[in-house]
Every structure is written in structure tokens, then in C-alpha cells.
């Protein structure tokens, strides 16, 4: 089971992200310049760091590039997947809240 609180706090430097994902630092910087991913700003001149969602995007984009997609097509597909996942979890959250409200009315 994933600890969501821990994942929200997860911020890793570009070198470690590169090691973990197998994506070269130069490529990660390029993807950031293109707006595919975003680093966490921690101050002027500090090392680029990435949160859980950006690392997830890096992994997904890499997989799609390996499958033959262009960077633009891969980025678009990843954004669509994330949007769908967010919508599903939003709907699930609303259902849970409705059930809590019904229980408290009893």
C-alpha cells in the first residue's frame, strides 16, 4: 500500500531521478523546457528537483517514446491519462463523502 502523505513530500534531485528512471539529465531538462514536466523550485541556483507526479510523468513519457511516439504525442497522451485518473479519483472521493453524510444522518 502506498503512503500518500509520503508521496506528497517526495522531492528528488535530477541526478537521482535520472538514475532511477534511466532518462539522461539532459533529456529531463529538455522535457522541462518543453513544458512536459516541471521541477520544484527551491531557490535560485539550486539543483533541479522533481516531485512524485513529475517522476511519474517522466517514466510514462519514456515508455511511450520507447514505443515509438514523438515527444509531443507522448506528452499529450500522458496528460490525458492523468486527467482521466484524476477524474476517477475525484468521483470516488465524492462517493465516499456522500456515504459518510448518509451515515451521519442516521
TrEMBL record:
GO terms for molecular function: DNA binding; DNA-binding transcription factor activity. InterPro entries: DNA-bd_dom_put_sf, MerR-type_HTH_dom, MerR_fam. The lineage of its organism: Bacteria, Bacillati, Bacillota, Bacilli, Bacillales. PROSITE patterns: HTH_MERR_2. Keywords: DNA-binding, Repressor, Transcription, Transcription regulation. It comes from the Bacteria. It holds the Pfam family MerR_1. Residues 11-80 form the HTH merR-type domain. PANTHER family: MERR-FAMILY TRANSCRIPTIONAL REGULATOR, REDOX-CYCLING DRUG-SENSING TRANSCRIPTIONAL ACTIVATOR SOXR. This is MerR family transcriptional regulator.
Amino acid at each position: 500500500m502506498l503512503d500518500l502523505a509520503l508521496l506528497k513530500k517526495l522531492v528528488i534531485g535530477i541526478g537521482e531521478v535520472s538514475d532511477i528512471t534511466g532518462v539522461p539529465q539532459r533529456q529531463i531538462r529538455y522535457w522541462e523546457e518543453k513544458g512536459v514536466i516541471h521541477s520544484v523550485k527551491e531557490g535560485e541556483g539550486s539543483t533541479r528537483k522533481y516531485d512524485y507526479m513529475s517522476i511519474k510523468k517522466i517514466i510514462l513519457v519514456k515508455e511511450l517514446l520507447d514505443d515509438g511516439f514523438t515527444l509531443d504525442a507522448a506528452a499529450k497522451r500522458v496528460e490525458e491519462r492523468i486527467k482521466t485518473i484524476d477524474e476517477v479519483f475525484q468521483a470516488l472521493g465524492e462517493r465516499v463523502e456522500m456515504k459518510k453524510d448518509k451515515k451521519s444522518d442516521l
